Amino acid sequence: MITRRQFLKVSAAAGGGLLVGFRLGAPESAMAAEGSSNGTDAVLEPNAWVEMHADGRNVLTISGSEMGQGAMTVIPMMIAEELDLPWADFDTRFAPADEVYANPALGGQLTGGSATVRGFYNQLREVGAATREMLMQAAANRWDVPLSELRTEPGVVIHTATGRMAEYRTLVADAAKLEPPEEVFTKDREEFRIIGKPTRRLDSPQKVNGQAGFGIDARPDNLLVASIERCPVFGGKLRSVDAGKARDAANVEEVVELDHGVAVLARDWWSADQARKTLSVEWDEGEHAGLDDEAIETQFREGLKTNARPARTEGRGAEALGDDESTVSATYRVPYLAHTTMEPMNATASVGDDEVTVWAPTQAPGSVQQVAAEVAGVDPAKVTVHTTFLGGGFGRRFETDFVREAVELSKRAGRPVKVIWSRPDDVRHDFYRPAAYNELSATLGDDGLPQTWVHRIAGPSIWSRVAPGMVKDGIDPAAVEGAADHPYAIENIEVTYANVDPGIPVGFWRSVGHSQNAWIVESFLDELAHKAGTDPVEYRKKLLEGGDSRHLGVLERAAEMADWGGEVPEGRARGVALAKSFGSYCAQVAEVSVEDGRPRVHKVWCAIDCGIAVNPAGVERQVHSSIAYGLTAALSGKITIKDGRVQEQNFNDYPALTIDQMPEVEVAIVDSGQPPGGVGEPGLPPLAPAVVNALAALTGERVRRLPIDLG
Length: 711
What we know:
By secondary structure, the protein is an alpha+beta fold. It folds into 3 domains: 4-208, Aldehyde Oxidoreductase, domain 4 (2-Layer Sandwich); 215-286 and 345-420, Aldehyde Oxidoreductase, domain 4 (2-Layer Sandwich), CATH 3.30.365; 293-337 and 432-699, Aldehyde oxidase/xanthine dehydrogenase, molybdopterin binding domain (Aldehyde Oxidoreductase, domain 4), CATH 3.30.365.10. The chain is 28% helix and 24% strand. The longest helix has 28 residues, at 116-143.
C-alpha cells in the first residue's frame, strides 16, 4: 500500500490523454505541487511510465536496457497486469537518461545485477494499479455509482450490477482530471492474468524483421565513422605518430591524436579501419610493459602473505586447522575473462555548441549522460541519450569508455562521429573479469564433515575503481561474494581477501564474483565429500540442515530431475553444484564424458528458485543463456598476458561455445512464493563446478584451474 503524495502525479497528456508518472525514492518535497495551466496536477518531469490516449493508443516506458534478457517484455508484464491492459495492446519506448528511472535495487539508472524485476516489481505493479483505479473512478463518476460496484476486464471498466461497460480509451480524458487515489492495492497472486504465465518476447518480431535499432545502426546526418588504434599495453600512452598515409587514404576526413591512441575518421568504417593499418605509431608503454601471467600470479601469492584482510571469521577461524591427514588443502586459480558481446562495442555522438546527443547501446544511461556532459563541457541536462537495443551486455556496457571516445571525437571534428571497435579491439581493451588465486584448507571431523574451513583469496578489486566507497576495511564485496557468504554450517570459518592490482583493468562480468567463487567453493566441497567417502548431494544436505530451506529445495529438485544415484550411461558421470546469487537459488547437475581428451557436457539439469517468476518462459531462456556463457568460460575462457599485452584477439583464439557443444538443458522453476529474485545471472555460477565435479567422478582427477585442461 502507498499514499498518493509519496508516489503518483497526474497530468493531461497530449491529445487529452492520461499520463501517470512517479519518482522512485524521491521525497514528497521533490514532487511538483503546482497545478498546470489546464488545472490538473503536473508530473514532476516528463518521466511517465504509462501513457494512455483517447484514440486507444497506449505507451509503456521501458526503464531497463534490453540486451537480450527480456526487459522489454517483463516490465510491461508487471504494469499491464495491474492496469488490466490487454496484453501487447500498447507501444513501448526506452526511457531517457533521467535519475527518476533509477532502479531501487541498484541506486542508479542501471541495468545489471539481475535487478530489473526484483528492483521494480512492487513499484511498477503499483503504478499500474493506480492507473486502473483512476479509470474506474472516472467511470464511477460518469455513471454515478459507487467505485466498489465496478471491476475491470482487460481494457474495459464494467459495472457489475448492470453490465454497463466503458473502454479505457473513453475514460482517459476524465481520469486525467482526477486526483490519484489515496491508497493503492495490488492484486493477489490468484488474480494474475499475465504475471506467472509463459509469455513470448515483445522484441522478437523487431529483431527478426530487422526493425530493431541497435547502437551500431545510428546514422545521424553528416556522420563520420572512427576506428581507433589504442596502446597495446595497459596504461600506455601515445608518444608520436606518422599519419601521412592514413590522411591520404580514400574517404578519410581526419586523423585525431588521443591520449591513449590515434583515431582515423572516415565516411565509412571500412575505410577508417584500413587507413588505421597504415599508421606508424610509437608508444610510451609505461610501467606494465613487462607484465605477464607468471608475474601476476607472483603478485597474488605475495598479496596473500602481506595484504590479506578478514572477510568472515567464525569460531576459532584458521587456528582450528589440523596438521594431519584430516586436513585437506588445495589451490584454485581463475584467469581474466573478456566479455565478447556479439554487437561490437560502439557509440555515436553529436556535439553542438551547448548540447550533446548520444546514441548508445548502454547498460547505464545515467552514466553516459554524465560522461558526455563532462567531455563536452555542458550541463548534463543538455545531454540527450538515446538508449538503443544492446547486442549483449554481460556487464561490459556498464562502462562508458566507448562513449567518451565518441563524444571527444565529435567535439573535435565538429560533426557527428560513430566509434566502432573491431573484435581485436574488444578482446584486447576490455574491463576483464578479475583473475584470482585461492588457497583453501579444511579439517574434517570423525563424521567426515568439515569442522574448519579456511579460504584465502587474492585478486584485483572492481569496486576500488568503480566506487571506492564500496570497499570497507579492505574488502571488495564483489571479490568475496559466494565465498564469504556460503551457506554451509561449519563451526570454524575464516575467509580473507587480499586486494592485489597488477594493472589489468577489471569490471563486472556476468554474475561477477559468484562466477568464480561458486566454482571454487563447490569444487573444494566436492573434494571433501570424496575424502569423506560420502555422496556429494547427501554431503551438502547435511551441511545445510537447519539453514535456508530454499537451498535444500533446489538441491533436492535438481537431484530428483537427474535421477541422482540412478543409472548413468557408460563412459559418463554426473556432478552437482549449488549457489545463491542475486536473490535466487540455483542447483545444477551436469552429465559429462571425455571425447578425444576433451570434456563433453551432454546434459544439464537446473532447478532455480527465483521467487515469483514473472515470465517463466523468460526464466528458462535466461538459464539456457547463462549455461551457454558459463560453459564457454569453463571450456575455453582465458585472457593471457605477455609483455603487458593481451595475446588473444578474436574467436579463433578466444572461442565461444559452438552449437554442437551446447548440452541439452532441462529447467525446473521451484516456486517458493517469495518475492522475485534475479534471473539473468544465477544460472551461471553452478555450471562450472557441476561440470568439474562430474569430471572428477569420471577420471579421478581434480581440475583446479580454469579453463578445463585434461592434458
